[in-house]
Amino acid sequence: MTVRPAKPADAAAIGKIYCDSWKAAYRGIVPQDYLDALTPDDRTINPANYLVLETEEGVVFGLANLGSSRDKERPDWGELRAIYLLPEYWRKGSGTALFQAAEAELRRRGYARYFLWVFCENARARRFYEKMGMRPAGRDQPFTLGGKELWECRYEKELL
Fold first, then answer.
1. What is the rounded CA–CA span in Å between residue 157 and residue 160?
2. Following DSSP, what letter does each residue of 18-41 receive, concatenated?
3. Contact 3, 51 (CB under 8 A)
4. In DSSP terms, which residues pair with 64 in a beta bridge?
5. Residue 93 region by backbone torsions, left for phi larger than 0, else alpha for psi between -120 and 50, else beta
6. In this predicted structure, what is the pLDDT of residue 92?
7. pLDDT, tens digit (0-9, with 9 covering 90-100), for 76-86
8. What pLDDT score does 3 carry?
9. What span, in angstroms and rounded, lies between the C-alpha atoms of 2 and 46?
10. H or E stretch covering 129
């Protein structure tokens, strides 16, 4: 497997990864009718903000969306906005490789610290982020998706 910067030609694969991973990871968290309505065409991407993970045969099965902080309180931080794999690749070490590559890219871009948001109810993802050295920042925030109020938790990490 190889991690590389995304290209415009990866847009369809990225859309499929978002759609399939959301439907699997967020079942029971996000309203089911919202998940059922998702299609791979729902995402518009800027390839400059993505890394993709592909098999040796060139099949793209993972993505990381990263960049500068969208939080006005932390303008000099990096942000990992999303990291997803197709469900059939979960728990095989691919997520770790992609996460490490995303951290390396944030470091290469000059960030000393970064953060991410995760659904507070997503225990599997939270365990993964903690295993990768991220720590809860003690800041949760609500938002509404599909007519349901959800909470997301902020995780942070120093890049050494």
1. 9
2. HHHHHHHHTBTTB-HHHHHH--GG
3. yes
4. 51, 83
5. left
6. 87
7. 999 999 999 99
8. 95
9. 20
10. helix 123-131
Other beta carbons within 10 Å of 75? 9
**What SS3 state is found at 8?**
helix
* CA 15/CA 38 separation, integer angstroms: 10
Q: Considering Cα of 157, then 133, then 85, then 25, what sign does the dihedral take?
A: negative
- In the structure encoding, which two tokens stand for residue 54, read together? 């592909």
Helix (H) / strand (E) element for 158: namely strand 148-158
pTM of the predicted model as reported, rounded to 2 decimal places: 0.91
- pLDDT tens digits, one per residue of 141-152: 999 999 999 999
Query: Per-residue DSSP letters for 44-108?
Result: ---GGGEEEEE-TT--EEEEEEEEE---TT-TTSEEEEEEEE-GGGTTSSHHHHHHHHHHHHHHH
User: Nearest-CA neighbor of 24 among 90, 80, 70, 99?
Assistant: 90
Contact 157, 133 (CB under 8 A): yes
